[in-house]
């Protein structure tokens, strides 16, 4: 597992064996961050990493200057490793051991990016619940983006606020954004209709 870009570009991080994880591959991670790079300046972005596992995605955001980063996972070993790595690299990561759904139901903070990588074996309804809770609880900032990683067998494009998706190998990233609710200014509309 290596950091793709930023302050610690090329640095390898080796989590202990035995953690119940399926880390995002370096190829998929690089593709994901290429997409995000077209939408955001990472410096100072407030990030929530759900089902954080080894912290792979959190470290990538940290290396690129995002802060603060909240990493949530239900496994004690994963959280312990994230805390150790964050301390070693001085990443602004707060690792929290919690059931993700309980965390979301109590969360009173909003973020610029919410990334979720639930275990692929969870059922369709569980994946949907993650997305719906984030929007119902206003956990995503109005100009923010939610990304959920899933297998090609899980379909999320019917959900509210779905924007687009990208596939890399056996993994799919579905992106969600608030629909634009800006009122159309009549003067702007008239100007568009005029010939120059």
TrEMBL record:
InterPro entries: DNA_methylase_N6_adenine_CS (IPR002052), RNA_MeTrfase_RsmD (IPR004398), SAM-dependent_MTases_sf (IPR029063). It holds the Pfam family Cons_hypoth95. Keywords: Methyltransferase, Transferase. Transmembrane segments: none annotated. GO terms for biological process: methylation. SUPFAM superfamilies: S-adenosyl-L-methionine-dependent methyltransferases (SSF53335). PANTHER family: METHYLTRANSFERASE (PTHR43542). This is Methyltransferase.
